[in-house]
Specification:
There is one protein chain. The protein is of the alpha/beta class. The protein has 2 domains: about 130 residues, 2-Layer Sandwich (Nucleotidyltransferase, domain 5); about 35 residues, no CATH class. It has 6 helices and 6 strands. It has a 6-stranded mixed sheet with strand order 3-2-1-4-6-5, covered by helices on one side. A hairpin with a 2-residue loop joins strand 2 and strand 3. The protein is globular and about 55 Å long. The termini are far apart.
């Protein structure tokens, strides 16, 4: 495969699918959503047991697209629940991969950094893998925000799915700029432009 721009592999496992894509710069070259049926996932007692299945999905995608690991410049993965992280990108090293495997909150997103790390290692360290805006990428809140008001729940786990927040905020800001300065957009127009907001 000959391409002029560096190629980035994107890995995003969800509860019933694995989303994969190849990008050159900001241009999507190819993407696929691989559905995992209940029957396919039934044999796995834990999320971590799905690791070989999810990794095989990635390798099959690369093979079908004619892309070798050596063609890649980097791997970008969804980040899981591994602690209180600020939003943004993090290099996946052995400690981050191990934290993902041993997460206190089992979720398929925890598998992505492990797969990314393993694939990067298979290149002999020629490329790096990164997580971006992890599920737990909400920062370190003030202690005030960790109180639930229910003593049995103290301290609460500070973690929400923040991955949709940055793109939703960007879309909303873009929409607001489009409107004349004195006109406030209707809720319906914001909903149409920003479906990820979930309103």
């Amino acid at each position: 495969m000959t391409r002029t721009d560096p190629i980035i592999l994107v890995i995003n496992p969800g509860s019933t699918s694995t989303k994969l894509a190849l990008y050159a710069a900001e241009k999507e070259l190819q993407s696929v959503t691989i559905k995992h049926s209940a029957a396919e996932l039934a044999p796995f007692a834990t999320i971590n047991e799905q690791l070989p299945l999810r990794k095989k999905a990635v390798m099959d995608f690369l093979r079908k697209s004619g892309t070798a690991l050596t063609d890649l410049a980097a791997i970008a993965t969804r980040g899981g629940v591994i602690g209180r992280l600020e939003s943004g990108a993090y290099l996946i090293d052995s400690a981050l991969a191990e934290a993902s495997y041993n997460s206190i909150a089992p979720h398929p997103a925890n598998l992505a950094p492990i797969i990314g790390y393993q694939l990067a290692e298979e290149t002999g360290g020629r490329i790096n893998a990164y997580i971006y805006d992890a599920v737990c990428g909400c920062g370190n809140p003030d202690k005030l925000f960790l109180y639930s008001g229910v003593p049995e729940l103290e301290p609460i786990l500070w973690c929400i799915w923040a991955a949709a927040l940055p793109p939703t905020c960007c879309r909303a800001a873009k929409l607001l700029i489009w409107w004349p300065m004195m006109r406030v957009p209707s809720l319906q127009s914001v909903q149409a432009e920003c479906p990820a907001a979930g309103w």
